[in-house]
Specification:
Elements (H helix, E strand, L loop, with lengths): L1 H22 L2 E2 L4 E3 L3 E3 L5 E9 L2 E8 L7 E4 L6 E2 L4 E4 L5 E4 L5 E4 L7 E6 L5 E5 L4 E4 L7 E2 L4 E3 L4 E4 L5 E8 L5 E7 L2 E6 L19 E4 L4 E4 L4 E3 L9 E5 L5 E6 L5 E6 L15 E5 L3 E5 L3 E3 L9 E3 L10 E7 L1 E2 L13 H9 L6 E5 L4 E5 L5 E3 L9 E8 L2 H19 L3 H19 L22 H14 L10 H9 L1 H4 L6
Parallel strand pairs: 26-34
Antiparallel strand pairs: 1-11, 2-8, 3-4, 4-5, 5-6, 5-7, 8-9, 9-10, 11-12, 12-13, 14-23, 15-20, 16-17, 17-18, 18-19, 20-21, 21-22, 23-24, 24-25, 26-27, 28-29, 30-35, 31-34, 32-33, 32-35
Helix pairs in contact: 4-5
Length: about 525
């Protein structure tokens, strides 16, 4: 009996499977798509459905079916995820698609209203379309991208890419045509917006662009070549047919072209910025991008990170600096630059004169100074900070920021000064030998990569009762040991010591996400 029913059971299973596959090819008017259903492109490259961004939240999205991470290329509701149970997309007879959460509340709609709507279908290009009679397109997802363009998808004056993180939260960067009809990368934050690609200081001819065209259009073809109406152009390193690609404005502000390999992994085949720190604004307000050697964000002296989990949000001042009643000092940051926001520009002036210019303006938070030319640029905003390993021009550039004097820093500087002097002048050989031994032991400990950090407490003042940060203590010890080098030529400058001390909090936890 069991054996005779097996063929029938198998036949019923196959029929059910075929019906499900057929149903998943498209949506007919009056049908819906639940969180457990998906639409597939005919060649299987793309999938459309509910993508989980957390255990209980989903977005109605399109993604690459064969990528290992199911990379999302479009989302209807990135700002308003729905509950991952009971939500659905309804396709009405007038062509309108409505995304509803579990309570029935309307979260998103494609705003179509046509008596000729016939089906909603996901194409092999990754484009979700609503078709009417005669094959006319009534609506398509290609007209409302999020952070990604796919091959054959146009970018026009009405289209903007916005960077998003893995939870589809919008970032600070956008890619679209500017008011000269040039394809441009922007940094956008509250009342601040500026261009960072192509190089804003270059002339239109240096950019190799054509402004004010009668049309605004850009497209990535199926072979991996991009061409814009403004002559913006680039080509994938693996240029050729039959490769799945995407052009994505990543959360770090870099525009990258990706190719999918046969095992489902992505590789970068072109990028706007081979050096990520050149994405100005990457580290937010008052942040500085450095290489450690990976790109990392630190705060300018006197500032602290706003959100350790997302350092692109920048840094906030530790204290509010007013114009009067405070004793201030400037911190020199050599080979460091902040983009724009100059209050004024001055030439052939001394660094002290530039300092006075900044101090006399309540809006000034720091200034850039070129030693070779005497150029002075007081700034009212510290944004787009980048530390260069070598100066960008023949003149050595230095950024100066100021902060409220911290007495503890002064005290440490005094102690370090006395320690070096007393070590040299002390004629008690026993004392010198004992102190020298302590320094050597400490130096050896600092060189070790041992994960056991318990030894640090042995060198800390007991009056702190163990209330100290290991990373900060270790860095302070490294500074102290270097200051007590017997060879004067190997001792750091006081400027370097101060910079290390004021940045210890930032350096101990710097990663660009």
């Amino acid at each position: 009996m069991v054996a005779s029913s097996a063929p029938l059971l198998l036949l019923l299973t196959l029929i059910h499977l075929l019906l499900c596959i057929s149903a998943d090819d498209f949506l007919s008017p009056g049908s819906s798509l639940s969180v457990h259903q998906e639409l597939h492109s005919p060649d299987g490259t793309f999938t459309c459905g509910f993508q989980q961004i957390s255990p209980n939240a989903s977005t109605f999205s399109i993604w690459f079916s064969k990528s290992t991470q199911k990379t999302v290329v479009w989302s209807a509701n990135p700002l308003h995820p729905v509950y991952s149970w009971g939500s659905k997309v309804e396709f009405n007879s007038d062509g309108r698609m409505n995304l509803k959460d579990y309570s029935g509340q309307n979260v998103w709609t494609n705003n179509v209203s046509s008596p000729d709507a016939q089906r909603a279908q996901l194409l092999d290009s990754g484009n979700l379309v609503v078709k009417g009679k005669g094959g006319i397109t009534l609506w398509q997802s290609f007209d409302s991208p999020t952070d990604t363009l796919l091959p054959t998808q146009n970018i026009t004056a009405a289209i903007k890419l916005v960077s998003t993180n893995r939870l589809l939260v919008p970032g600070h960067f956008s890619f679209h045509f500017d008011d000269q009809y040039l394809l441009t990368l922007f940094y956008d934050e509250k009342d601040i917006s500026f261009i960072y690609w192509p190089e804003p200081r270059a002339s239109i001819w240096q950019k190799h662009r054509n402004p004010f065209n009668s049309t605004t259009n850009g497209i990535l073809d199926s072979w991996g070549h991009f061409l814009g109406s403004d002559n913006a152009t680039f080509t994938a390193a693996d240029w050729g047919p039959n490769i799945s690609r995407r052009l994505t404005l990543d959360y770090d502000g870099n525009l990258r072209l990706y190719s999918l390999d046969k095992v489902g992994n992505w590789s970068v085949t072109w990028m706007a910025f081979p050096q990520p720190c050149k994405v100005r604004g990457l580290c937010g307000l008052n942040g500085i991008c450095v290489y450690t050697p990976a790109p990392a964000c630190v705060c300018a002296p006197g500032y602290e990170v706003i959100d350790p989990s997302d350092r692109s949000k920048g840094c906030s001042p530790r204290v509010n600096i007013s114009c009067h009643g405070q004793e201030l000092e400037f911190i020199s940051l050599r080979d460091t630059d902040f983009l724009g926001y100059d209050l004024s520009d001055h030439h052939f002036v001394t660094v002290n004169s530039c300092m006075e210019i900044c101090l006399s303006d309540c809006n000034c938070v720091g200034f850039a100074y070129l030693e070779g030319t005497g150029d002075c640029y007081p700034k009212n905003v510290l944004l787009g900070g980048v530390a260069r390993s070598t100066p960008a021009t023949a003149s050595t550039g230095t950024m100066y920021t100021y902060r409220e004097l911290v007495l503890a820093t002064r005290k440490f500087k005094d102690e370090i000064g006395r320690g070096a002097s007393e070590l040299q002048k002390n004629e008690d050989d026993d004392v010198k030998m004992a102190l020298g031994k302590v320094i050597r032991v400490l130096a050896e400990q600092l060189k070790s990569d041992d994960s056991d950090q318990s030894w640090i407490a042995d060198f800390i003042d007991t009056r702190l009762h163990g209330q100290f940060n290991n990373t900060q203590a270790r860095m302070t010890m490294e500074v102290a040991v270097s200051c007590l080098e017997e060879d004067r030529g190997r001792r750091p400058t006081m400027e370097y010591v101060v910079q290390m001390l004021v940045s210890v909090d930032e350096v101990s936890k710097t990663v660009v996400g």
